Here is the input.
Amino acid sequence: MLAAGAAQGAENRAQGQGSPFAPDPLPSTYKPLPRADVLIVDATLLDGAGARMDDADILLRDGKIVSVGKDLPRPAGVAVVDAAGRWVTPGLIDIHSHNGTYNLPLVYDSPPTWDVAEVSSPNVAETSIDHAINAQDPAFVMALQSGVTTLQVLPGSTPLFGGRSVVMKTVPGRTMQDMKFPDAPQGLKMACGENPKGNFGSKGQAPTSRQGEVAMMRAAWINAREYLHKLKREQGEGSDGGRRGHRPGSPRDLKLETLAAVLEGELRVQLHCYSADDIAAMLGIAREFDFQIAAIHHAVEAYKVPDQLKAAGTCAAVWPDWWGFKMEAFDGIRESAAFVDAAGGCAVMHSDSPFIGQRLNLEAAKAMAAGRRAGLDIAREKGITWVTSNAARALGLDDRIGRLAPGYNADVVIWSGDPFSVYTKADRVYVDGALAYDRTDPRYQPRSDLLIGHPARELKP
Here is the structure.
């Protein structure tokens, strides 16, 4: 069940309103690539909503999916793509990426060249990762070549409040704004557990414990709630015709403005959290302050509390096989996504790595295989939802992407075979109906400027 603020935020977006409490200083300048109407025929189709169709057709027109079915009419002037023997899915969605901030090739030095996290304070909610993204990072193109059409770039997980995230398309762009998903809800990255207390506690700063983390979070939300009430009082006192926001001359607090936007449902909380105890504590804070956590990322012990996640409407973004690399990851199991799904929850695969981000379909395959070994019958049409429609739900974009259905954005991948096979590659990738990548045509094989003149430029995916 949505919190009241989240419901209000959804209504504002439906009416085309931006966030008055967290205005976007870098609005999208994205424009679709040149496109033509396309009819893909005779494919094995996984629609992202839990259905499979064999020998199916799909018509793309003006950047949207127009129709899906068998033996569709072939309108004049529409390019026909024969996909016999191949599979078609929605474009994959990675809800946890650091592309553009952990730039490829990865270089670790001191001081660091990467900008993944601002660590001057446990609360840097005033920051936004889109101010740090290098659009030339080759990882974006590599994700596109691997069937990823949408990804969320998140700040790092050192602070409790890490700042705002941004949703991007994997099409090449000169700047981050050229790749920014128009009108996509932004997120607020939060973190709990070992990362914040380990970083700031080691420096003699707060928090130094999990109870300290929770206390600092609650204090921040109390201040944000008071700030929001103050803004609304000012709105009522002002003479701006009832517009929401600040009166002229009223001082702005960017940190509290961001948290107020969460309480109003304008920003979606994306939370780094591993253990079941921490997950339960964070869900409790969300209930106390009446906001929703869109997704808990990493969520290694999500399989222990799937009922709580389901009741909160919160997705669990997990890996199939990362475990034991730190104490709070010690009890991770390969079957986690399958168990969350079997309990009726929202399971999502995510990367946290530019390399895993090129293999999201195989991450889902590993999780499916683990679930099957545990006795769960997980069909391919179910597994694909973990990297399409469920991921779209976590981003608040499930009315636009993640499914092959009329009216949805024409983000489509034609795979050379079964997308859950290690031998399969993405043959063609369409973004908003435009052919953005073609494995057999050099005209549709974009390369980052950073690779010009580099031997890696000649490598083929």
Q: What stands out?
A: The radius of gyration is 22 Å.
